[in-house]
Specification:
Elements lengths: L3 H11 L17 E4 L5 H7 L1 H4 L5 E4 L2 H6 L6 H17 L6 H8 L3
Antiparallel strand pairs: 1-2
Length: 109
Amino acid sequence: MRNRIDQAEMIYERDQYLCICGNSVFSYGTPQLAHRIPQRKHLIETYGKDIIHHPCNLRATCCLDCNGQVSVAQNMEGLRAVLQEIREYELAHGGIRLIGKLDNLLNIS
């Protein structure tokens, strides 16, 4: 697995150094990575660290306010969309390790 600095750089590049609000991620000093499915204890237990810290679950943000707006924890449709995006990414990149877990979470047989 990539180290955190490499992963952060990859996410910033993917998001073109833009926050979800449209500002540069450097607008307020320190760019952040926001978890769409938050890294809360019960969510880590449910989904696992590989899903919580998956690149598709992370977004570049410029501040704590924007970081908080990224969460889909209270939105079942948004949550399923993130899980489906991770599944599609893994299928496209040969990552079969997570597919079974994602299929179970998405009720795909």
